[in-house]
Amino acid sequence: MNTPPRSIRKRLLLALATLPFLGVVAAFGIAPDTAIESIPRETVVENVDPAGGQPYR
Predict the structure, then answer these.
(1) How many domains does the structure of the chain reveal?
(2) What is the residue-wise DSSP string for 4-32?
(3) How far is the C-alpha of 29 from the C-alpha of 6, rounded, in Å?
(4) pTM of the model
């Protein structure tokens, strides 16, 4: 099975380009000592004074 060197170069480049994405998936998929528990939620509403009370010009 003879393949042109250009085809092999493209395959190698594609394989090397996908490796970082596999690492990201593994990092999020494997997280030791994590607990799945319900965390209490709280709604916080604050009034924000835009521009420090300065009138808009």
Answers:
(1) 1
(2) -HHHHHHHHHHHHHHHHHHHHHHHHH--T
(3) 35
(4) 0.36
